[in-house]
């Protein structure tokens, strides 16, 4: 009781002191609590001085815009980590969650060392971030074909690179790249080596992503298909359906194929078993985080706060994501009797992936249709990938990002309405798709899809095969069945909870043999 009285006495004393201070605060001595007197000019400036202040205000708003949206895109890592971990089993939670964090650490350094220079070393920078980007003037080109890689800005060094505009561009583009690095962790979850994924993250951030990113966004040959070959505005991808999502999805596809399915996923008769996720609420929260950050992902890609198209981009993003989730929910409800939470989440993500490329070039009715198709595609693709192709993708990354990334890049070639994009890739006039009179734009978009298959899937498949031979992609069967938290990470995600074992945690005579596990049998013999 005495202690309580003493605490109350101290609180009352602090309150009295605060009250006295509050009453004594004055706006004298030049203080201005309203901010009404704040001004950058006095009325005596020259026209040049006023123009200088306005110039700084223009660039200042652009810098604030690109940095804040970049911060939000970084938070994608949290969303992806929660979605993937929630869809996986509890015995692998620490492994899956940490892998999603690790890829940022590795990817950021790989992109800093090499990737940024390859992607943007010859891009000339971003106009809305000042003239410093002109230092990015080194693009290796093939005459008559176009650019293939930049070669200035390794380690953000060399002449003129120490520039605020270039650093801002690097920061924003780095978090985009890291989304691509994160996507394959979902299709390879629950059986991939943690150490192997370090090599994968380096390969993607330093080589695979930057080259394709250069061809699309860094002044490379795909972006100049319009100038060199008369195909629309060249390859166009406003915020990354192709560069980020389809590329990540193609890598996810090749990785899942080389890695093989989880033990017990397929029976000898070819049918699959469901592996329920351990925390659906976690996955739903992760989806909400991703949805929120997607507004920055797409609208931030204007790289310019004074581009009023931001409002169109954000609204199109909202509508496509919302209707994608709604379509997936009702599809599962009608087809299977229940509104599957996981597929509702993946439907929303599918709609968001699909609208990412065309979001600035289409009207909201087109965005609505694109989202409907995205939500339907993911519901059809998940069972097709699993039951027809016999590929084990624990979180649906292939169906969400690969399938709908491709759909997004094609949708742009169909629905771009010509109201935006004047000057994109050096071509005058707005970007128009097939339905608005320019079939050549759709042709350019199909070339992007072909390159994604050859470069994104083909090259990553070869890399995974080599890495599997040299280092090994997959954990041993005992570790997989036990759960990867202790064997791979040395800690349990849930040390105070007794995880319940079921038939899926043990081998069965009815399991389809997995060829990727043959090496472990040989080692035992």
UniProtKB/TrEMBL annotation:
It is found in: Cell membrane; Membrane. PROSITE patterns: AMMONIUM_TRANSP. Residues 64-494 form the Ammonium transporter AmtB-like domain. One of its GO terms (cellular component) is plasma membrane. Keywords: Ammonia transport, Membrane, Transmembrane, Transmembrane helix, Transport. One of its GO terms (molecular function) is ammonium channel activity. The chain crosses the membrane at residues 7-25, 63-87, 99-120, 164-184, 196-218, 238-259, 280-297, 309-331, 343-361, 397-416, 442-464. It comes from the Bacteria. It is a multi-pass membrane protein. SUPFAM superfamilies: Ammonium transporter (SSF111352). GO terms for biological process: ammonium homeostasis. Belongs to the ammonia transporter channel (TC 1.A.11.2) family. This is Ammonium transporter.
